[in-house]
Design brief:
Layout (H helix, E strand, L loop, with lengths): L1 H9 L7 E9 L10 E4 L2 E5 L5 E7 L2 E8 L6 E7 L4 E7 L9 H5 L9 E6 H7 L5 H4 L6 E5 L8 E5 L7 E5 L2 E2 L20 E8 L13 E7 L7 E9 L3 E9 L7 E12 L8 E13 L3 E15 L5 E2 H5 L2 H10 L4 H10 L12 E17 L3 E24 L8 E3 L6 E3 L1 E23 L7 E23 L9 E24 L2 E19 L8 E19 L2 E12 L3 H5 L10 E14 L8 E23 L5 E22 L4 E24 L5 E13 L6 E12 L2 E10 L2 E2 L9 E2 L2 E12 L6 E9 L7 E11 L5 E9 L4 E9 L1
Parallel strand pairs: 1-7, 11-14, 34-42
Antiparallel strand pairs: 1-4, 2-3, 2-5, 5-6, 8-13, 9-10, 11-12, 13-14, 15-16, 15-44, 16-17, 17-18, 18-19, 19-21, 20-43, 21-22, 22-25, 23-24, 25-26, 26-27, 27-28, 28-29, 29-30, 30-31, 31-32, 32-33, 33-34, 34-35, 34-36, 36-37, 37-40, 38-39, 40-41, 41-44, 42-43
GO molecular function, one term: siderophore uptake transmembrane transporter activity
Subcellular location: Cell outer membrane
Family: Belongs to the TonB-dependent receptor family.
C-alpha cells in the first residue's frame, strides 16, 4: 500500500499541540448530554461519553472552530487556540426552541440501543466526498459496500451492493418517504442527481435493521435526511471540472431563520459528462427547495426536489476479451456471433471503452419530481407526532435502434411491394422504438414518538405508512424503414400496474438496568399488486397477488464499561417478488415470497483518551448470519422468449464478520478509518440449467446440474476500505482512499471462468480551505481516481451454453470496465 507510506511522510510537520477536554451539558438543568457530537474545523473529532465528557488530546497550534451538536438542542460553536498546555472547555447547549422535523426520520433510524449494525455519515463527511458523483460513490468507504458505474466514472447510472445484496434488496428512504420503485424494488440515484448537496446526513443500516417504510430491507437500508433547520443565512456555489469532460455546477442558498419562524433553502445543479465508456454521456439537471414554518411545538415543512436525466445507454458492458486485451478471444467472439461490417470494426477499434450502441440517440430520458409535506407537533413534554404526505411523479422513456426486427413483433402486417406476380414480401425492418414508463407514487407516513420527560430509560414509537403506486408501461415505434400500416408513434404494447403497500410498526427500547437494555420491534406489512395488459413480447401479463408479512425484531445491549458495548439481535424480514418475476414467468409458475432470518451480534468501543500512542480510537466488530428461505436467484433458466428467470432456492445464507476501526494519531494529526468484511455466501443446494443449442440456436435439450454449497453471485468474500487523512498545513488536508474487493462470480456456479477478477483501487483527495475577508470560505479540492491506474471491472453478466451435443461449453462474459486514472477538481465558495 504505497499511498499509506506517502501519507505518513506528509504528517511530520511539527506544531505545538495540546489537549482540549471538557463536558457537554443541558443548558437548562446542567445534566450531561452523552452522545453529543464534536467536530473540529468541520471534521469529526469525537462523541461525548456517558458523563458528557469529551477529550481531544492533540489540537494543533492556531485558531480552530470547535462545534458541538445534539438532537433537540441548538448547536454551539467555540473558537479554541491550540497550545501546549491543557485546556478545559465547558459547553452548555440551549434547548432548540423549534422542532426540527425529525419525528418521522428518527422513528426509522437505529441507535446504540437498537442492537443493530449501522453507520452514520454527517453532512461534513458527505461534503468532503462529494465531487458530483452519484450517492453510491459517497458510501464506498462504508462497511461491506461495493459500487460500480455503467459509464465508468461514477456519473450516470451507478450500482451499489451491501453484503452482496443489490439495490433491489436495499430499502432507501428520503425523510422517511420510500424511494425504491414499487415494482422493480430498485432505487435509481441517477434520477436524483446531486441530491448529496442537499443532504443533512445518511444512516446506513446493514441487515434487516429497524422497521421502516417501503420495501423490505434484505441486505441494508439507506435512511437519507435532507437539510434540517439552519438558523443562519448562507449562499454557496460548487463548480467541478474533470476527466471525460465532466462538469458540475451547483448553487445553493438558505434564508436562515426569518422572524424566528420561517426558513427557505434551495439548490440548482447541473452535471454533465462524456463518460469513460464510449458515448456513455450524461446530462443531469436537478433542483431542491424547502420552505418551513416553526414555532416552539409545531413544525410544517414543504420539500420538493426533482431530477432530469438523459444518459446514453452503456448498460450492456464490453466483451471480456476486450476488457482483458485478448485479441484471439475477441476474434472467436466475432466469428461465433456472425458480427460483420461496422459492428465488427467498432469491436476491434474501441478497446476496453467499447459500447455496442452507435445510434446517436440511444438514450435513457427520464424525469422524477418529488413533493413532500412534513408536519411535526409536540404533544406535551414526552410525546411528539410526525406526519408526512408525499407524491412522486415519474415519466420518461429509453430509445433504441433495432435492426432487422420482425414487423409481427410490433403488431404490423408484412409489407408487400410490387404487383402480382412480381411481388416482394418484407417481414422485417430496421426501426426506432421507445419504451415508456409513466407513474405516480403517493401516500402518507407517520410516527408517534414517546420519550418520558426526565427519564431516558424508555423510548417508544408507533409508526407506519400507506403508499400507492400507479404506473403505465407502453412502447412506441417512432420510425421504421418499412412502416407497414403503422401510425405515428405506433403503440405496440401497453400494460398498467397498481400496487398498495401498508405497514404499521411498534418499537421500543428500555434500559432495564444501568448496563442492560432491551429492544423490540414488531411490523405488519400488507401488499396488494396487480398488472393488466400485454408486455413487450406480446404476452398477456395480467396478474394479481397479495401478501401479508409479520416482521418481528428483538435485541439486547450490555454496557461493559464507559464507551464499550456488547449487543445482539434477531430480526425477520420478508420480500415479495419483483415485477419481472410475474411478467417473465409462466402464469402457472408464480414465484414465492422470500424470507430472511437475520442474527447480528457485536462489540462497539470508543476511547477518548490515548491508547497505545493513539489520541482517540473507536470501532466495532459485528458478526452477521442471514439465513434465507426461498431466495430468488438466477439458475440459468430461461423462458420461451429467452429471458433469464429467477428461481426460488429453498435454503441459502450469508455470514461473516465486519470490522471497523477509526483512530486519530495525536502526534501526527493523522486520522485512519478502516473497515474489513470477511464473509461466506452460499446456496445450499440448487439445480443449474444448461441449454444445448443447434447451429440455428434452437434448443436441442436441457441439462440440469445439481450444485451444493455454491457461492452466491456478486458476493465477494473479502471487502475492505481504508481512508488515511492528514493535515499537511493549516487548511490543507490530504487523504488516501484504498479499496479492495475479492473475486465475484457472475452466476451461481462458482466457476472462475465466469467471474470478475479481484481488484484493488486507490484514490487521492486534497482539500485546501481558507477564510479570506471577502467570503466566508474558499475551498479548492481535487480527487484523483484510480491513482495507480488499475485496469479492472466492477460489474458484469454472463451467458452461454452448449452448442451441439458433446461440445465444450461456450461462455460469453460482459464486463463493466471502470475508468483508469482520472481526476475531478472543485472550487467551492461559501458566502
Amino acid at each position: 500500500m504505497p499511498g499509506a507510506a506517502f501519507l505518513l511522510l506528509l504528517g511530520h510537520a511539527a506544531w505545538a499541540q495540546g489537549p482540549v477536554s471538557g463536558t457537554i451539558t443541558d443548558g437548562r438543568n446542567g445534566q450531561a448530554l452523552p452522545g453529543a457530537t464534536i467536530t473540529l474545523d468541520g471534521a469529526p473529532a469525537g462523541v461525548a461519553d456517558a458523563s458528557g465528557a469529551f477529550s481531544l488530546p492533540a489540537v494543533p497550534a492556531g485558531a480552530h472552530e470547535l462545534r458541538v451538536t445534539f438532537i433537540g438542542y441548538q448547536a454551539s460553536t467555540r473558537r479554541v487556540l491550540g497550545q501546549a498546555a491543557p485546556q478545559q472547555v465547558g459547553v452548555a447547549l440551549p434547548p432548540a426552541d423549534v422542532l426540527t422535523g425529525e419525528a418521522v426520520v428518527t422513528a426509522t433510524r437505529a441507535n446504540e440501543r437498537t442492537a443493530t449494525a449501522y453507520t452514520n455519515l454527517s453532512r461534513e463527511e458527505l461534503q468532503k466526498r462529494n465531487f458530483g458523483q452519484d450517492i453510491p460513490y459517497l458510501l464506498d468507504q462504508t462497511p461491506s459496500v461495493v459500487v460500480s458505474s455503467d459509464a465508468g466514472a461514477g456519473v450516470g447510472y451507478t450500482g451499489i451492493r451491501i453484503r452482496g445484496v443489490d439495490v433491489t434488496g436495499i430499502n432507501v428512504t428520503i425523510n422517511g418517504v420510500p424511494l425504491n420503485d414499487a415494482e422493480s424494488h430498485g432505487a435509481f440515484f441517477v434520477n436524483t442527481p446531486d441530491l448529496a448537496s442537499s443532504i443533512q446526513d445518511i444512516q446506513v443500516q446493514r441487515g434487516v435493521g429497524t422497521s421502516t417504510n417501503g420495501g423490505a430491507a434484505f441486505g441494508a437500508s439507506l435512511n437519507i435526511r435532507t437539510l434540517s433547520v439552519n438558523r443562519d443565512p448562507y449562499a454557496e456555489t460548487q463548480n467541478t471540472y474533470g476527466s471525460f469532460n465532466t462538469w458540475r455546477n451547483t448553487v445553493s442558498f438558505g434564508s436562515g431563520l426569518v422572524g424566528g419562524k420561517y426558513t427557505f433553502d434551495g439548490r440548482l445543479s447541473r452535471i454533465s459528462s462524456d463518460g469513460y465508456i464510449d458515448r456513455a454521456s450524461s446530462d443531469l439537471k436537478s433542483y431542491y427547495f424547502a420552505a418551513g414554518y416553526q414555532q416552539k411545538n409545531t413544525m410544517l415543512k414543504f420539500v420538493t426536489f426533482s431530477g432530469r436525466e438523459k444518459t446514453y445507454q452503456a448498460w450492456d458492458g464490453a466483451p471480456e476479451a476486450l476488457v482483458n486485451g485478448d485479441a484471439a478471444a475477441l476474434e472467436k467472439y466475432i466469428a461465433f456471433n456472425y458480427i460483420e461490417g461496422a459492428d465488427a470494426e467498432n469491436l476491434r477499434r474501441a478497446g476496453r471503452r467499447y459500447n455496442v450502441y452507435t445510434y446517436d440517440n440511444q438514450v435513457d430520458n427520464y424525469q422524477q419530481n418529488h413533493y413532500q409535506l412534513h408536519f411535526s407537533q409536540g404533544l406535551g413534554q414526552s410525546w411528539n407526532l410526525g406526519v408526512a404526505l408525499h407524491l412522486t411523479r415519474g415519466f420518461g422513456y429509453y430509445e433504441q435502434f433495432r435492426a432487422d426486427n420482425k414487423l409481427a413483433n410490433y403488431g404490423l402486417p408484412p409489407v408487400v411491394v410490387g404487383t402480382a406476380p412480381n411481388t416482394v414480401t418484407i417481414s422485417r425492418t430496421d426501426l426506432i422504438r421507445r419504451k415508456w414508463l409513466d407513474n405516480y407514487f403517493y401516500g402518507a407516513t407517520y410516527a408517534l414518538n414517546y420519550q418520558p420527560h426526565g427519564d431516558d430509560r424508555l423510548s417508544a414509537t408507533l409508526g407506519g405508512g400507506w403508499n400507492r403506486y400507479a404506473g403505465d408501461h407502453y412502447g412506441e415505434v417512432i420510425w421504421a424503414r418499412y412502416a407497414s400500416t403503422s401510425s405515428i408513434r405506433q403503440r405496440y404494447y401497453f400494460n398498467e400496474a397498481e400496487k398498495t403497500d401498508f405497514n404499521v410498526f411498534a418499537k421500543a427500547t428500555y434500559q432495564v438496568a444501568p448496563r442492560v437494555g432491551l429492544f423490540a420491534d414488531l411490523q405488519l406489512r400488507t401488499i396488494d399488486y396487480q398488472i393488466k395488459g400485454v408486455d413487450d413480447d406480446k404476452r398477456d401479463v395480467t396478474t394479481r397477488a397479495s401478501y401479508t408479512f409479520f416482521n418481528p425484531k428483538a435485541g439486547l445491549t450490555f454496557t461493559v464499561a464507559d464507551g464499550q458495548q456488547l449487543y445482539s439481535s434477531f430480526a425477520v424480514g420478508h420480500r415479495e417478488p419483483v415485477r419481472s418475476d410475474f411478467t417473465d414467468r409462466p402464469a402457472d409458475d408464480r414465484a414465492r415470497a422470500e424470507r430472511l432470518h437475520d442474527v447480528e451480534a457485536g462489540y462497539r468501543f470508543r476511547f477518548a483518551r490515548p491508547v497505545a500512542g493513539l489520541s482517540a480510537v473507536r470501532g466495532e466488530v459485528n458478526y452477521f448470519y442471514m439465513n434465507y428461505r426461498n431466495q430468488l436467484v438466477a439458475t440459468g433458466q430461461l423462458n420461451d422468449v429467452g429471458t433469464a428467470l429467477r428461481t426460488n432456492i429453498p435454503s441459502s445464507y450469508r455470514t461473516g464478520v465486519e470490522l471497523t476501526v477509526a483512530a486519530v494519531l495525536g502526534a501526527e494529526r493523522l486520522s485512519l478509518n478502516s473497515t474489513l468484511t470477511l464473509s461466506r455466501n452460499r446456496l445450499r443446494r440448487f439445480q443449474e440449467t444448461i441449454y444445448v443449442y443447434d447451429q440455428d440456436y434452437n434448443v436441442l435439450e436441457t441439462q440440469l446440474v445439481e450444485r451444493s454449497n455454491s457461492a452466491i453471485s456478486y458476493s465477494p468474500s473479502v471487502v475492505s476500505a481504508t481512508t488515511a487523512e492528514t493535515q499537511v498545513l493549516k487548511g490543507l488536508r490530504v487523504a488516501l482512499l484504498y479499496k479492495t474487493v475479492s473475486r465475484q462470480y457472475l452466476d451461481n456456479s462458482a466457476s472462475a471462468a465466469r467471474s470478475l477478477k479481484p481488484y484493488q483501487v486507490a484514490d487521492l483527495r486534497l482539500r485546501y480551505s481558507v477564510q479570506p475577508s471577502f467570503v466566508r470560505e474558499l475551498e479548492f479540492s481535487v480527487l484523483v481516481g484510480n491513482l495507480f491506474n488499475q485496469r479492472y471491472a466492477a460489474a458484469g453478466y454472463t451467458y452461454g451454453g452448449l452448442y451441439q451435443l458433446g461440445e465444450e461449453r461456450l461462455v460469453f462474459n460482459f464486463l463493466s470496465p471502470q475508468a483508469t486514472r482520472n481526476f475531478l477538481a472543485t472550487v467551492g465558495i461559501k458566502f
